[in-house]
């Protein structure tokens, strides 16, 4: 696979989001996930994304077990500052002493001595970003992490954090239907040389055609909980109508809808010169994992990118990105998306 850089790290142009193997989009199976993780490395993925939050630590333990013996073959990204109790309660805590504790617990679960890229998962509104970033810089100084990142922060917070210590990566939701980063953080990433890592690049399966409306989803599915508005039956019926022309474009390009969604992201980065994007689609299916990785080879022309831009964007889809309650906890540029 082509590669990109994140600070001192070199990673595959498309990374593997691992959250689904522990939570999010229906039941997962550890044996199947172990097979998928190993097959992912064999297929050329060298960038894995996890977090202390995912499955309350299950995801990190799974990766540690599944890839024991292959640690040198991949760049490992994890996140702290947001944790989940066994009964599903999430807590944001960006205090320095908590980040140190979260990082040490992640290292133990992952069975590794160093996490290559360590993100603050969410800004803690009660802790100045400088303090959280300073704590991550201390983790780097101590040799526990190699590079640091922030997730879902506004451009103002990103600049403030960078002033405390250089930030290597910014991870936020970005896809055709979630454009918030275009309001500021992409410009700041380009200016400061920060690699941008789009999460949920397939719009939680919507752009790949594998999502359904909330009435058919499990109550714990993230599309029925935090990302609910766009998957509400009325909104979804409108949104899904956009997929017919979208799928036609994919057919014209000669790729799958999921690959088209990823190729659009990579083309957006190319059009911005030095800005680097590393999308991290997540899947539990072997064939989808391979299909998504192969999107790194697809090049879209400007006319196709413009057509996609116009077809699916925050004005053409119905429903907001998150529920109001969740949006209130995100340090976002604006609320519309
Ligand atoms: N920083 C943050 O706050 C944050 C938040 C959310 C996610 N993330 C990270 O980003 C990663 C990806 O995001 P995501 O999982 O939310 O969303 P996503 O990658 O946009 O979509 C995942 C969904 O798409 C389906 N899918 C994947 N490839 C497909 C294909 N080729 N064809 C059809 N369907 C396909 C998956 O199905 P199956 O699962 O059934 O295979 C799953 O339901 C996560 O794993 C996690 O590491 C970070």
Word description of this protein:
This protein is α/β, with parallel strands linked by helices. The chain has one domain (3-205, 259-300): TIM Barrel, CATH 3.20.20. The protein is built from 13 helices and 11 strands. It has helices spanning 30-43, 58-66, 96-110, 129-141, 155-164, 185-192, 228-231, 233-241, 243-253, 257-270, 286-294, 302-311, 324-327, and strands at 3-6, 9-12, 16-17, 47-49, 75-80, 82-84, 90-92, 115-120, 145-151, 169-173, 195-199. Strands 3-4-5-8-9-10-11 form a 7-stranded parallel beta sheet. It has a two-stranded antiparallel ribbon with strand order 1-2. β1 and β2 (9-12) form a beta hairpin. α2 (58-66) runs parallel beside α3 (96-110). The longest helix is centred in the N-terminal third of the chain and has 15 residues, at 96-110. Bound molecules: NADP nicotinamide-adenine-dinucleotide phosphate. NADP nicotinamide-adenine-dinucleotide phosphate binds next to α11.
Descriptive labels:
alpha/beta, globular, two-stranded antiparallel sheet, binds NADP nicotinamide-adenine-dinucleotide phosphate, TIM Barrel, 337 residues, seven-stranded parallel sheet
Sequence of strands across the biggest β-sheet? 3-4-5-8-9-10-11
Total helical segments: 13
The distinct bound ligands, ions and cofactors come out as: NADP nicotinamide-adenine-dinucleotide phosphate
CATH architecture: Alpha-Beta Barrel
Low-confidence runs = none
